[in-house]
Amino acid sequence: MDEKLFAAIESLHAPSDWVHLATVLKDGSPHVTPMMMGVDAPYLLFSLTGKQKVRNLERDPRACVAISKPTVMAHVIVWGQIEIRTDDEAQKMWEGMIVRAFGDAGLGQRSRTLSRDGTMLGVFTPERHRIYGIES
Predict the structure, then answer these.
(1) Which of 50, 108, 122, 135 could form a disulfide with 82 if both were Cys (CB 3.0 to 4.6 A apart)?
(2) Which residues of 19-55 are buried (b: 16+ CB within 10 A; e: fewer)?
(3) CA gap 63, 18 in Å, rounded
(4) CATH number, residue 29
(5) Are 43 and 123 in contact (CB under 8 A)?
(6) What are the distances in angstroms from CA 15 to CA 33, 35, 99?
């Protein structure tokens, strides 16, 4: 991940903050959902539990995430592709994301095994980005 992008995300985003993730619906229109996001450079991570977003990503892996803070105009927009994963490495990445956001106790409350029928990990690979209002 680009160093400026990583620094900009870190300046705006805490592990338990919400972002807006957009995927592409079958008709080509956007499907935008508020979600929690983890960072495991060079990737952005999303816990995927909804059926619509997963269907969208299986058909078209392109996505866009908007990262901002309330009452601040500074923001980061990142475009890229999301790979849906449930493998052992993805499980470790998902657990790390949950621990960073909620601590070890939080993982205990949210513990689950990734599966195609339940929670999956969306591994977002940034391809381009826009940083607005953040000093570099």
Answers:
(1) 122
(2) bebbbbeeeeeebebebbbbbbeebbbbbbeeeebbe
(3) 16
(4) 2.30.110.10
(5) yes
(6) 17, 11, 9
Amino acid at 68: S
Range of the domain at 56: 3-84+123-132
* Domain membership flag for residue 100: no
d(CA 106, CA 104) in angstroms, rounded, equals 5
Percent of the chain predicted with pLDDT > 90: 80
Tokens for 130? 């826009």
Residues 34 and 52: beta-carbon distance below 8 Å = no
Number of domains observed in the structure of the chain: 1
Both tokens assigned to 34 = 């508020």
* Single pTM value for the model: 0.93
Q: CA 7, 100, 40, 129: dihedral to nearest 10 degrees? A: -40
What is the tens place of the pLDDT at every residue in 25-72?
999 999 999 999 999 999 999 999 889 999 999 999 999 999 998 888
pLDDT for the residue numbered 136: 57
φ/ψ of 100, rounded to 5, equals -60, -35
